[in-house]
Amino acid sequence: MVWGAFSFSGTMELQEVQGSQTATGIPIRSTLDQSMTVQYAEQLQNLVALARSVIRDTDPQNDVITLGVCSKSDEIIVATGEWVLAVLQHPFLSA
Amino acid sequence: MVWGAFSFSGTMELQEVQGSQTATGIPIRSTLDQSMTVQYAEQLQNLVALARSVIRDTDPQNDVITLGVCSKSDEIIVATGEWVLAVLQHPFLSA
């Protein structure tokens, strides 16, 4: 069950979660409430930035494509590029 | 092709990369050279710690199980628990 999805840092029109962006790092659309969205957006940006530094320390031309975190109850998947898409789901619950 | 694997923060005997640990956070065995191992161990510990804080901000009882980073050329998979196991591979190259 996908319980939250949002996109930030992007200009791409999303197919299922459509929106446009006015400022870098501002979530453009989310199914989470506003405070949760802002919280996750900020934290996941930091996480992607740290992952990028890990990758680039050994190859400065390299970059993060996806980042995933599985916890005991949830799964967070982040895809990066010109835009960033994050999906948060409970993989152990049915749709 | 797995090009590097190491474990740290642990006491578990690994099946393929056996070793024992003398201090928390010290890599116990690695197929990478020493400097790369120390570099990745430190960086991945920071990455896991940040991912844990993201997870626990919404649920303090929750914890990270696995963390994965796909880059343009490599893939890093980190499994956490009492011990931490990290595998670094080139998924686009054959074994």
TrEMBL record, chains A, B:
Residues 23-87 form the Roadblock/LAMTOR2 domain. Gene3D superfamilies: Dynein light chain 2a, cytoplasmic. It holds the Pfam family Robl_LC7. It comes from the Eukaryota. Belongs to the GAMAD family. This is Roadblock/LAMTOR2 domain-containing protein. It comes from Oreochromis aureus.
